[in-house]
């Protein structure tokens, strides 16, 4: 997980971008006004200047805005490494880049090669002229780019930088053959950088490496997720647990399954996030602050009344600080299979949910993840900003819709609790 923190290094204030043992630093000296005394007035814990520092208000605001740029980047692209984040806003070096010329009445070949599409067409022609040519790879790439990249015909080599490559990698990752597609595209960039007719240098993309982009962490599934309807959700949330799924004799187990799913719905959590939840993850502000297991992205959600009741119900029945009485670190250590207890619980939970699905009249087999999908749908339908929902759910903004959150998080937390309370009424 990439972390951001302002620290003093070599008597200068810098933004540290870290991940594990990797450390990268961005100087912020140029942002500061009045040369404040770091030794006397810098508060390391709060990452801001005290009120005694010169121009403290102006400098604190400048630091906050600088850091927020990287924070937003991490929310949008949690798959980036610390090195990639540190390089993301690096200015392009103009070495070897030909400045765009004013258009003439008769464009030259060199000006046509400003466009990636035109140059890719030329590569195909050149490859066909070779013995043992490899034009099929580039023909497939050209066809794919025209199909999936919006505005590909107007994509210029001058516009290719680190950020553009991230967006292209994100687009390629939505489709099969990511590795082959990006390898072919990178080969095109390599050819262009060596071609004197093409205004492009590899320095433009910095140290971006397509192979470092992990599409599995940031893939977008275009299929519509399974969700419960309003009536089905109400029926489940208000179910009489004494008679619900009557084939199950162990009513305590049914109650645990039901509480687990209700908790998923109110928290946006996936099953793996709920089962590993601990009391230490609950903050004094009555929120839950954790990192999602799948993406390692930090999330913070308010504790709704329903969640609070469930937390209180199982207190004293669990071991090792877990909220739900499912995990047991000593028992887990006895199994060679990783996350054995979680996997067995999830398996039994999904078997029970199939029975629930039949009672609710679903046309698909109900499974645990449906409650996360339903929570996102309810929140969006209730008018919460799409980007706030994306952050609360611990997913990228693009996964829901390309908007940015600019509202009041406290107000939205209150709206979220109201939305979930209405769902059970």
Describe this structure in words.
With 425 residues, the chain is mostly helical. The protein folds into 3 domains: 3-88, no CATH class; 109-212; 230-423, hpI Integrase, Chain A (Orthogonal Bundle), CATH 1.10.443.10. It has 18 helices and 7 strands. Strands 1-2-3 form a 3-stranded antiparallel sheet. It has a two-stranded antiparallel ribbon with strand order 4-5. A hairpin with a 4-residue loop joins strand 4 (42-43) and strand 5 (48-49). Helix 5 (116-128) packs antiparallel against helix 6. The longest helix is centred in the first third of the chain and has 21 residues, at 56-76. The relative contact order is 0.08.
Task: Briefly summarize what is shown.
The protein has 425 residues and is mostly helical. The chain is built from 18 helices and seven strands.
């Amino acid at each position: 997980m990439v972390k951001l923190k302002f620290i003093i290094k070599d008597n200068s204030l810098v933004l540290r971008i870290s991940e594990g043992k990797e450390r990268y630093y961005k100087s912020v000296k140029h942002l500061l006004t009045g040369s404040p005394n770091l030794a006397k007035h810098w508060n390391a814990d709060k990452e801001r200047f005290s009120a005694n520092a010169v121009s403290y208000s102006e400098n604190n605001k400048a630091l906050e805005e600088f850091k927020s740029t990287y924070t937003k980047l991490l929310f949008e692209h949690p798959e980036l490494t610390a090195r990639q984040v540190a390089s993301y806003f690096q200015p392009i070096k103009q070495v070897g880049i030909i400045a765009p010329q004013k258009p003439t009445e008769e464009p030259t070949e060199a000006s046509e090669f400003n466009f990636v599409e035109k140059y890719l067409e030329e590569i195909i022609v050149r490859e066909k002229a070779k013995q043992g040519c490899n034009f099929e790879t580039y023909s497939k790439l050209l066809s794919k780019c025209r199909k999936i990249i919006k505005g590909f015909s107007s994509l210029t080599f001058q516009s290719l930088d680190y950020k553009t490559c991230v967006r292209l990698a994100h687009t390629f990752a939505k489709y099969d053959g990511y590795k082959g597609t990006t390898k072919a595209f990178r080969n095109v960039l390599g050819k262009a950088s060596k071609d004197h007719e093409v205004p492009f240098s590899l320095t433009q993309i910095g140290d971006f490496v397509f192979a470092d982009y992990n599409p599995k962490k940031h893939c977008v599934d275009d299929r519509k997720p399974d969700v419960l309807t309003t009536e089905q959700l109400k029926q489940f949330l208000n179910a009489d647990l004494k008679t619900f799924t009557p084939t199950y004799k162990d009513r305590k187990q049914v109650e645990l399954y039901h509480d687990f799913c209700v908790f998923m719905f109110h928290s946006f959590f996936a099953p793996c996030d709920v089962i590993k939840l601990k009391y230490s993850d609950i903050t004094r502000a009555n929120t839950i602050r954790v990192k999602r297991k799948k993406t390692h992205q930090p999330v913070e959600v308010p504790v709704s009344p329903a969640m609070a009741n469930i937390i209180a119900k199982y207190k004293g029945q669990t071991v090792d600080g877990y909220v739900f009485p499912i995990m047991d670190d000593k028992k887990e250590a006895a199994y060679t299979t990783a996350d054995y207890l979680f996997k067995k619980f999830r398996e039994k939970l999904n078997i029970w949910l199939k029975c629930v699905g039949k009672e609710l009249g679903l046309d698909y087999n109900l499974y645990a993840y449906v409650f996360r999908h339903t929570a996102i749908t309810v929140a969006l339908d209730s008018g919460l900003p799409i980007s706030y929902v994306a952050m609360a759910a611990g997913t990228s903004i693009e996964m829901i819709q390309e908007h940015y959150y600019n509202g009041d998080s406290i107000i939205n937390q209150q709206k979220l609790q109201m939305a979930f309370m209405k769902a059970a009424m």
